[in-house]
Specification:
The structure is a single chain. This protein is an all-alpha fold. The chain contains 14 helices and no strands. The longest helix has 31 residues.
């Protein structure tokens, strides 16, 4: 019980936020309009979106394997990726990221921190692509000159951010030393920051390898193209005449909605962010929420099937992995950058 109450600060805010958001959504939209939207959907587009989802997931495996410099087989990478997504959907604190680093390290006999560094870089680049997609959509959605200027400013900031990452990649040992000196008087900040920065700096080495980074960027771009296409097909199922930019707008909003504290899998916050973004441009909250629910359902089913299959063949369970990850979190110390 002592450990239970001690851990509430990590999961209770997310629980409260998700429950409040779900109640607000149901009161604002209503189940009747949601059901009507699904009844009127064109399920030919839904099936096409499902097929595109398989391609997206397969490409995501190639993205991660490229960052790993092909040190693990594609089969190992793909099924571990799905296991990680499954963990994120059902466990708190986004333990799926630690989970796939732990699982793949064990399968492919790779150091945990080496695998984790690739996941950190993958997530950082995902944020960059999310911002880029959202910024490309904003001028068309808002349709004002000021919005275009704001998009250009934020776009420039993204470029500057990538340039900073490159500089850090070239000087990662020195940068880590600066961080340790600056946080010398705040041990907790140094410890927590080190846990994030050390694998990030290690993983950023990919930016200094021109051919490796080109391969990674190619697969990452193609993966995002299929993500936008898949989402557009789901939008067309409920909005037959929707412009393509709606998919970019919605996908960008959904990614940021998933970053809000919530129940595992961004339950509630994902639907609010995505459904709200589409409702702004369509003025139809029922179908907008239906798109969000369908997209989230696809995420659970697609990764859940492969993840559950991988766990079953490896003799693992969700709770077993959860206990191992919590133990690793408690015992881990900030690594040094070499």
């Amino acid at each position: 019980m002592k450990n239970f109450w001690k851990s509430t600060s990590s999961w209770l805010p997310g629980l409260v936020i998700s429950l409040v958001v779900i109640v607000v959504i149901l009161k604002t939209v209503g189940l009747d309009r949601l059901v009507q939207a699904f009844q009127g959907a064109d399920y030919r587009y839904v099936l096409l979106a499902l097929a595109t989802s398989w391609v997206w997931l397969a490409l995501r495996g190639l993205v991660w394997r490229t960052l790993l410099r092909d040190k693990a087989s594609y089969k190992q990478v793909f099924f571990t990726l799905c296991e990680g997504y499954l963990l994120n959907n059902f466990l708190p604190l986004r333990l799926g990221e630690l989970g796939r680093a732990y699982l793949l390290g064990r399968k492919a006999d790779l150091p945990f921190m080496e695998v984790l560094s690739t996941i950190v870089v993958e997530r950082v680049m995902d944020v960059a692509f999310t911002v880029a997609v959202l910024l490309l959509a904003i001028p068309f959605v808002v349709g004002t000159a000021s919005a275009r200027k704001i998009a250009l400013v934020f776009g420039a900031l993204v470029v500057v951010g990538l340039a900073v990452l490159y500089v850090l990649a070239r000087n990662r040992v020195r940068a880590m030393g600066w961080f340790e000196r600056l946080t010398a008087h705040w041990p907790k900040l140094q410890k927590q920051g080190g846990r994030f920065l050390a694998p990030l700096f290690t993983g950023l080495a990919v930016l200094t390898d021109g051919w490796l980074f080109a391969r990674f960027l190619f697969w990452m771009t193609l993966n995002w193209v299929f993500a936008v296409a898949q989402f557009y097909l789901m939008v067309l199922a409920f909005f037959p005449h929707a412009p393509f930019v709606w998919s970019m707008w919605g996908l960008g909003a959904a990614a940021f909605g998933g970053a809000i504290p919530s129940l595992p899998g961004a339950l509630g916050t994902y639907e609010a962010a995505l459904g709200g973004a589409l409702a702004i441009v369509s003025n139809e909250p029922g179908p907008s929420l239906a798109v969000a629910v369908l997209a989230h359902f696809f995420n659970y089913v697609l990764t859940g099937l492969f993840g559950a299959y991988a766990f079953s063949t490896e003799g693992e369970t969700l709770m077993g992995i959860y206990r191992q990850l919590r133990r690793r979190q408690e015992e881990s110390q900030p690594p040094a950058v070499e």
